[in-house]
Amino acid sequence: MILILRYALTRFATMLLTLWIVSILVFVIINLPPGDYLSNQIAELRATGQAEGVAKAEFLRTEYALDRPLWEQYMIWAGFMPGPQGFFGLIQGNFGWSFEFDRPVSEIVGDALWLTVLVNLAAVLFVYCVALPLGVLAAAKSETWVDYTAGFVGYLGLATPNFLLALILFYYGNKYLDLPIGGLMSPQFEGQPMSWDKVKSILVHLIVPTFVIGTSGAAAMMQRLRANMLDELSKPYVETAIAKGMKPSKMLRKYPLRMAFNPFVADIGNLLPAMISGSVLVSVVLGLQTIGPSLLTALKSQDQFLAAFILMFVALLTLIGTMISDVLLMLLDPRIRMGGRRT
Amino acid sequence: MPLLDVKSLSIGFGKAPLVVSDVSFSVERGETLALVGESGSGKTLTCRSILRILPSAARLRGGEINYNHGGHTHCMRTASPAEMRRLRGDRISMIFQEPMRSLSPLHRLGNQVAEVLHLHQSISAAEAKARVLAQFERVGFVDPERAWNSYPFEMSGGMRQRAMIAMAMVSKPDLLIADEPTTALDVTTQAQVLGLIKELQAETGMAVILVTHDLGVVANMADKVVVMNKGRVMEAGDAKDVLGDPAHGYTKKLFAAAPVIPATAAPAQTQEHADLILDIQNVTKTFTLRAKGWRAPQVVTACRDVDLKLPRGKTLAVVGESGSGKTTCARVALGAITPDAGGKVLFSARAGEEAVDVHRLTTAQRTLFQRDAQMVFQDPYSSLSPRMRVVDALTEPAEIHNIGTRAEQREKAADMIRMVGLSPDMLPRYPHAFSGGQRQRLSIARALTLDPTLLVCDEPTSALDVSVQDQILGLLEDIRDQAGLSYLFISHDLAVVARIADEVAVMRAGVIVEQASPDTLFYNPQHPYTRALIAAQPKPDITRPIDLGLVAKGAGDPTGWPEMFRFEGHSAPALRELEPGHMVRCHA
Predict the structure, then answer these.
(1) What ipTM did this prediction achieve?
(2) CA nearest to A238 within chain B
(3) Smallest CA–CA separation between A134 and chain B, in Å?
(4) In this complex, is the C-beta atom of B300 within 8 Å of any C-beta atom belonging to chain A?
(5) pLDDT digits (tens, 9 = 90+) for B103-113
(6) Is A1's pLDDT higher than 80?
(7) Is B96 touching A (CB cutoff 8 A)?
(8) What string of DSSP letters covers B386-421?
(9) CATH 3.40.50.300 domain residues, chain B
(10) Confidence (pLDDT) at B580
């Protein structure tokens, strides 16, 4: 137990280190295209002769240190160095200013952040809940109609474009099941404090997005699990278990599934970011108030603090995901726990 | 009424011809029946059909399997799945060939063994644990509590097979089916595991069906023998009769092929050889395991102070169990691993040529060395690429070294394949079309295409059936004499070595413990480990059973050897020449 705790702590430390490196990369990459939001705006204002606006933009430029060298900008943004407002960066909880929306990033992103996490967690849960039984079933009944049907449905899920699936589901869901179209809650709850009705509204609105974002992931995961299970089923320890007199269903759960589980768990880390970046388009189509659409606008208009923050957030989710899967693997597999003393 | 009665059993795959046909035998309580045959004889399918653990494509086509228990007859062919499950593991249990892979690596041994009790009896966890611990102690775990908490990958192969036996025995079955239980184990471990099965059988009065290809194992274990070939019974009867006076031609053939350590009348005369093709001097190889976190890096010594001389045209054999360092020696000799400072390997390709240091070659010298020294690997199934035609595999070496035109290379490949006793018609085929023995012939042909002078053979016959092993050894001898080759021959099997070697070095724990010509070694073995190896070799003769006492004395830890040979911790005594040409590691 102490071993695992120690491992989790080291893993956490490396995660912080990675996050720091990611922050540098993110900042540099966003600043690669020439110019920034404000200098573009100033040029435009000058051209149209609005001196008043220019003064405000110039003020923002000094206020957010955009007139300083890039490395200083980074240090101030991250909060390693005092800027015009003293130490006030990411570390201190200041996410920066969005020039496009003319509001603090935290205000724009606020709710969207949690809704993003919510939508994607729901999708991940959906992926696991669907892929696990289907994959195991397909492997256990391999080369029967169960396997073929599961495979067919899986490939259908992989091959259908998400936005198309979204439109189809909205249409029929609304027609037959009275599901709401678009958004993540009914309009009357937006900006309202959390209440039971709001939670219910969010849950009903989640159904279609979860399904849409999750299907392709679930299909891929199912195929992987099936292949892993089939490999494991031909191993001699399966014969040993049968020779003991175990029931096939119990044997399946205790031995091959445990073995086939590793890649399944290891995927948690990859799944989260893949879904967030993959769901940008879906969010736009479905009108979800996640950070996806904001990211798109921010990148297009070089709204650097907003874009940087969103990218950092996705990176953080990825890192947390891989950390969770690493610690889980450690708990699940004694071979990893004992430091690869495998023969 | 016999305990188990198998009557004219037939098994087939799909529409293909039967792979087991009309096999009958019966087993009485407390008796050991051996099913003997080579791979493909159907012995494994036959024994698995008793518990109905068959590949999913295999079908029982006919016959009956009746198991009599408590006055009730179970027909194993028609029993319901639930009835089968009640018998499996409880009344009839099974152990398998590969203890490494037959246990789940993710569950503790205690969990896996106690599971048998929980499946078949309503028993409390504490009671189950007590019984499993008692069984662990019985099969030879010094610390049963520790074994209970261990994972299989923390144990050696022999210990895992003991755990498998504990699992099979814990519910006190009437019948134990052992499918090649010792084939994957070292010979000394094999002797101990066989001894254990015999003891347990005497205690509990269970019957054993032993599936094996090794007549020596049969002679040590069996009361009754069924010899199978190509799915049919060739000969069956009491072990005494079948082994003492085999009636069927096939059984006689198996006997002739079984390698035995010859009874030697006198030690051989030693000769001095000045012309060495390979001279391994003072080679030590240590591996440093990667440091883990804040633990200090661990140093493992694979082999220590190895001095070996291979005279031109001769065969030097290195014998030892897994982990003894013999393969490391071979790889150092070929330059694949660099020895620690102070050791060197000298190689002189042809008589009169100046010797080169294998680990200090220029690029041009290395290319020449690679032509002159070739290797034959252990597993002919994985050492040939399944995606390359035989002709490509055989011409590839010449292509790499830019020798000859394409037509000449093909000509050479045809010569080589003829030399190993196959036909040039087979050149366009893929390796999967060949049997294990044929594949090993192909590996040898490939090693020979560059006309090497030195061949390093790493257990070239240990994956093969006895009769095929016999042929391959014959082939290696012929080629050696024909082409004037020298062999460095790595093996764990003294009987194989006895046949082909001119000089034998016995290794244990990374050092050579005894070295002599085979005649001297077998006539007058001095070291307890050599004696254990010789004693552990099962002989196909029921009047000469394995002497377990002798095996236990030599096969144990080197710090527990008799005083004269004992290691003090890691420091071994020196290798001394007791008589000319006979070296033993002992204190003066």
Answers:
(1) 0.78
(2) B102
(3) 22
(4) no
(5) 998 899 999 99
(6) no
(7) yes
(8) TTS-HHHHHHHHHHHTT-S-HHHHHHHHHHHHHHTT
(9) 1-91+174-258, 276-288+298-382+452-539+557-585
(10) 83
Six-digit token string for A320: 């947390």
Q: Does B114 touch chain A (CB under 8 A)?
A: no
B583: region left, alpha or beta (phi > 0 left; psi from -120 to 50 alpha) = beta
A237, B104: Cβ pair inside 8 Å? yes
Q: Quick one: pLDDT at residue A341?
A: 42
Nearest residue in A to B103, CA atom = A237
**Residue of higher predicted confidence among B98 and A24:** A24
Mean pLDDT of A279-289: 78
DSSP output for B166-200: HHHHTT--SEEEEESTTTTS-HHHHHHHHHHHHHH
Q: Is the pLDDT of residue A96 over 50?
A: yes
Interchain contact, B116 vs A239, CB within 8 Å: no
What is the arithmetic mean of pLDDT over B107-129? 93
| Cα B109 versus chain centre, distance | 25
What phi and psi values does residue B221 have, to the nearest 5 degrees?
A: -115, -35
Chain A residues interacting with chain B (CB cutoff of 8 angstroms):
10, 235-237, 239-247, 254-255, 258-259, 332-335, 338-339, 341-343
What is residue B5's predicted lDDT score, i.e. its pLDDT? 93
Q: Do the chains contact at A259 and B106, CB–CB below 8 Å?
A: yes
Q: B103, exposed or middle or buried, with CB in 10 Å at 0-12, 13-18, 19+?
A: buried
Which of A3, A4, A244, A254 to mutate: most B Cβ within 10 Å? A244
- Residues B67 and B244 sit within 8 Å (Cβ to Cβ): no
pLDDT at B130: 94
Residues of A with Cβ-Cβ distance to B51 under 8 angstroms: 243
Confidence class for position B265, pLDDT limits 50, 70, 90: low
Nearest to A343 among B88, B107, B153 (CB): B153
Mean pLDDT of B269-284: 82
Which of A236, A242, A334 faces B101 most closely, judged by CB atoms?
A236
Q: Does domain B276-288+298-382+452-539+557-585 have CATH number 3.90.550.10?
A: no
Looking up tokens 């030892």 gives B320
For residue A34, what is the DSSP state?
S
In angstroms, what separates the C-alpha of A124 from chain B's closest C-alpha?
Answer: 26
Answer whether A243 sits within 8 Å of B292, measured CB to CB.
no
CATH number for domain B1-91+174-258, candidates 3.40.50.300, 3.40.50.150, 2.30.30.60, 3.90.380.10: 3.40.50.300
The Cα–Cα gap between B577 and B580 comes to 7
